[in-house]
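Reading a protein record of the kind used here takes only a little practice. The record below shows the convention in full.

——
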Amino acid sequence: MMNHADIPSRRHFLCLLGTAASGLVLASCGSNPAQARNFPKALSNAEWRRKLTESEYYILRQAGTERPYSSPLDKEKRRGTYVCAGCGNHLFPSETKYSSGTGWPSFYRPLSEAILIDTDYKLGYPRAEVLCADCGGHLGHVFNDGPKPTGKRYCMNGAAMDFIAG
């Protein structure tokens, strides 16, 4: 026969539930592994703050996201190259840009060795985060719902990039 002391109390259950939820939050909010890497064009936070605009810093260094449809680069149609706004690393050729309808500049293929992919848990589940291979700046995310030939959608923040026509 089960003793009353063997039945977990509601307080015990809520404590366990709170501990589990806290663990998930702490796991997803930990330090960004990309920040621990040695990038060829690394700067201190103070140097990045002096070099970048407020929105560039928010996106590139704090992994922020701009509002959809807010970047002029989403509507850019000229031939050229999209480069990192932080360090000038060449990221995407204009030939790989397409209109995804998401409100962010989207590409189906980066230039060779231009980016790194990391795992981002900011929303509580894993997403493929796109980083600049030279400075580690957060550019956006990549999804598996893009067009052929790659099937990828590199969904980038326009404020994280500059455009060089030509």
User: Anything to note?
Assistant: Strands lie at 80-84, 90-93, 97-98, 106-107, 115-120, 127-132, 138-143, 153-156, 161-165. Residues 15-34 have pLDDT under 50 and may be disordered.
